[in-house]
Amino acid sequence: AAEECTSVLELDRKHTGALMLRAQTLVTMKEYHSALFDVSRLIELNPSSDAYRDLEARLKTQL
To answer: Which Gene3D superfamilies does this UniProt record tie to the protein (predicted)?
Structure first.
């Protein structure tokens, strides 16, 4: 799933659905740094989203 999301993001860097799915996939693979990168990008695109900020906080505890 992460590879497919990366392909979508190569075409549209602002595709929030692909960013979120890739972040979730990376979390299941325990690739927390990479997931945090995607979540940070989501926050840049949607600065008012509490859900993304909560996810970022949870990921930071995994580092």
So the answer is: Tetratricopeptide repeat domain (1.25.40.10)
Q: Give residue 59's pLDDT.
A: 95
CA 19/CA 13 separation, integer angstroms? 9
Strand, helix or coil at 30?
coil
Residue range 27-41: mean pLDDT, rounded: 97
Check if CATH label 3.30.565.10 holds for domain 2-60.
no
Q: What is the pLDDT of residue 12?
A: 98
Q: Is the whole model's pTM more than 0.90, yes or no?
A: yes
Q: How far apart are CA 42 and CA 17, in angstroms?
A: 9
The ranges assigned to domains in the chain are 2-60
